[in-house]
Design brief:
The chain is α/β, with parallel strands linked by helices. Helices cover 40% and strands 22% of the residues. Bound molecules: nicotinamide-adenine-dinucleotide.
């Protein structure tokens, strides 16, 4: 397998490379080209050079080219999915599903059209509000959904008329390189460029004087670093950062009905989802019954390599995350936590951690207060609804939250009091390409998806016209 950067529509080799690790074995399975700072500059120059022409291309024509890219992605979904499964660790079917999700997102977003608003003035004059592309957008992505998140960043940027320089996570760079190679066959040269690397190239993007905006998905500390680095040229920012979403189960909830859903929204992608359920607060009267049911589902789940068709849940994606989740589980046990399922890393090679449910932990324990981003779910007892709302809101994070009840009206009222960007009733994690998604508090700045998301890639321009215009 040979991989290359895409700069100015061409495959560009690199002098250096780095190892990509298979998380199912912990061993290297490919070498990825490593971009130099000079190549980052070339990519930015290519994007800048392509900007005027792309921005001037009618939006309908831009959308046609984006649809052609989506068609090509669909034709290669199986191969790309296999590569994604190998580098990310998720089961093959889930990886192919990620590619199809990315295609769906691409096509829906290609249908968005920025509005021109008109406001009539009392003096007979008229104001028009236009939306214009920003210029060059830098996109920096994480390792949990490398292809999907790349699409979330890039497609609205392109629909809006910007050009892009993208950098995937060094843990999962390969499917993104392949995808941009495919895109380059359908887009003008320089419209979508991709470079590789870690902090040096990432902060190089954040600092770059010729990049106008950065869209970043990843951890909150990195988000802060990007904000600092972007200050020099007042970069526009969209930051999708960490979460520690609470699910609150009210005393009237139907345990039988909700246990499989709580399980699903906590353990999808082996817990490596920004807006997964990361702590479940259950009323005293239901706590034991719900914890046992979720634990039974966790214990029955098949954890294994993504290449095994029987696997439902893959390994953690990288050694650092595996060690971190192991430490949090150890700490929970030391604090008196009782594991009803899992609790210790699986023996053997690779970064496998079983789906785990821990009870008898509470706020103040690391497993409750910190974002585990892995398959260890704390289930926490409460007795007073007002108190539990305060505990759910006591986090510095505010990505999502949910309330579970048979009384939808009451649950909706409480859900609106959660301090978070998305509040669900009787579900969690669900997102759609036409619905804005973003974090409150330290979980981010701005939103993605829908027309609100498109606005983040555009500069408003107010045009004031005199009476009679
Ligand atoms: P990370 O912050 O370590 O890395 C993300 C990306 O940033 C990588 O491409 C990395 O190379 C780059 N990077 C690292 N340091 C940088 C710097 N100083 N300047 C510029 N770029 C830099 O995050 P991760 O470990 O890959 O991802 C896990 C985190 O992402 C979790 O906290 C998770 O909640 C969050 N996440 C959030 C969302 C969301 O939509 N809110 C979605 C997925 C993941």
């Amino acid at each position: 397998m040979a991989f290359a950067l895409t700069i100015g529509g061409k495959a560009v080799p690199c002098a250096d490379s780095f190892a990509v690790i298979d998380p199912a074995t912990g061993a290297e399975f490919a070498q990825c080209p490593l971009a130099s700072v000079a190549q980052l500059d070339q990519a930015v120059a290519a994007a800048r050079g392509a900007f005027t022409g792309w921005a001037a291309t009618p939006i309908e024509r831009r959308a046609e080219m984006i649809h052609a890219f989506a068609d090509a992605l669909a034709a290669e979904a199986d191969d790309l999915g296999a590569l994604l499964s190998r580098e990310q660790g998720k089961p093959l079917a889930a990886a192919v599903g990620e590619i199809h999700g990315a295609i769906h997102w691409t096509r829906t977003t290609a249908g968005f059209r920025p509005a021109v608003e008109r406001i009539e003035q009392a003096d007979g004059g008229r104001v028009e509000i236009h939306r214009k592309p920003l210029g060059v957008v830098g996109s920096i992505t994480p390792w949990n959904f490398p292809v999907m998140i790349a699409i979330w960043h890039v497609i609205p940027a392109l629909v809006a008329g910007n050009t892009v320089v993208q950098k995937p996570s060094p843990n999962t760079p390969l499917a993104t390189l392949r995808m941009v190679e495919i895109a380059a066959r359908h887009l003008p040269a320089g419209v979508w460029n991709v470079v590789t690397g870690d902090i040096e190239i990432g902060s190089g993007i954040a600092k770059h004087p010729d990049i106008d905006k950065v869209v970043f998905t990843g951890s909150t500390p990195t988000g802060r670093a990007i904000m600092r680095d972007g200050a020099a040229n007042l970069k526009r920012l969209t930051l999708e950062l960490g979460g520690n979403d609470a699910a609150i189960v009210l005393p009237d909830a139907d345990v039988e009905a909700i246990a499989p859903q709580i399980f699903q929204y906590a353990f999808g992608n082996s817990g490596q989802i920004c807006a997964a359920i990361k702590r479940v607060y259950v009323h005293d009267s239901l706590h034991d019954a719900l914890a046992e049911k979720v634990a039974a589902l966790a214990a029955a789940a098949k954890v294994g390599p993504g290449t095994d068709p029987a696997t439902q849940y893959g390994p953690l994606q990288n050694r650092r995350q595996f060690d971190y989740v192991s430490t949090l589980a150890e700490d929970a046990r030391a604090q008196g936590g009782r594991f009803l399922a899992g609790g210790k890393p699986l023996d053997g090679e690779g970064y496998f951690f079983p789906l785990s449910v821990v009870v008898d932990v509470t706020d103040g324990n690391r497993i409750v207060d910190e974002e585990q981003f892995g398959p260890v779910l704390p289930i926490i007892r409460y007795s007073d609804v007002e108190d539990v709302l305060a505990r759910a809101n006591a986090s510095e994070n505010g990505l999502g939250g949910s309330v579970w009840s048979t009384d939808i009206g009451r649950a909706a009222e409480l859900a609106q009091r959660l301090e978070c960007g998305t509040a669900w009733v009787n579900s969690h994690s669900k997102i759609s390409p036409d619905v804005p998604f973003g974090g409150a508090k330290q979980s981010g700045i701005g939103v993605e998806f829908g027309l609100h998301g498109l606005d983040e890639y555009m500069q408003l321009q107010t045009v004031r016209l005199p009476a009679g215009a």
